[in-house]
Amino acid sequence: MDQGTMVILRTKRSIKNTNILKLKFTKNELNQNILSIKDSGTAQDIGYKTLKAFEWVNSNVDFDYVFRTNTSSYVNVTNLEKYIQEECSEDDLLYRGILHERKYKSTTSNFAYVNGAGVLMNKKVIDLVLSQKEQWDHTEWDDVALGKLLFEN
């Protein structure tokens, strides 16, 4: 079963308002900070699950930042909050993490994307992604598709 984690931060208003939302892709509901999203259980659904999670967070949580990671990643929330305050507070569209390059053999449309082990985004990026979700390339892994969508917009 695919799982992921989103650390939702409200650092502009109060550093103490950090929530960790664990994503479990089985059925549509929230229970004890576990958001369950129904899917077929296949890797092809990962982009749809990511978008559904972004939609849920955007509709139900007052947030400034989302750190989207996977369950095998360790997140030191205190250090993450400090990093945002010291390094990211002035970014208009914040999309940070470890960069990789997606190279296509038959085109020159290569682009950089943030590795899915840890993607830091602000609300403006989430809003942009959701407003352009029809452009999401579901043939790619979600971290690559996210980078592609942002590169093209």
Secondary-structure map with pairings?
Elements: E1 3-9, E2 18-24, E3 29-31, E4 34-36, H1 46-60, E5 65-70, H2 77-88, E6 95-96, E7 99-102, E8 111-114, E9 118-122, H3 123-131, H4 142-152
Parallel strand pairs: 2-4
Antiparallel strand pairs: 1-2, 1-5, 3-4, 5-9, 6-9, 7-8
Helix pairs in contact: 1-3
The span between the termini is 32 Å
- Overall number of strands: 9
SS-based class? alpha+beta
Beta-strand percentage range: 25-35%
Structure description:
- The protein has 153 residues and is of the alpha+beta class.
- The protein has helices at residues 46-60, 77-88, 123-131, 142-152, and strands spanning 3-9, 18-24, 29-31, 34-36, 65-70, 95-96, 99-102, 111-114, 118-122.
- The protein has a 7-stranded mixed sheet.
- A hairpin with a 2-residue loop joins strand 3 (29-31) and strand 4.
- Helix 1 crosses helix 3 (123-131).
- The longest helix is centred in the middle third of the chain and has 15 residues, at 46-60.
- It is globular.
Q: Top keywords for this entry?
A:
single chain; alpha+beta; two-stranded antiparallel ribbon; 4 helices; 9 strands; 27% strand; globular
In short:
This protein is α+β, with helices and mostly antiparallel strands. It has four helices and nine strands, in the order ββββαβαββββαα.
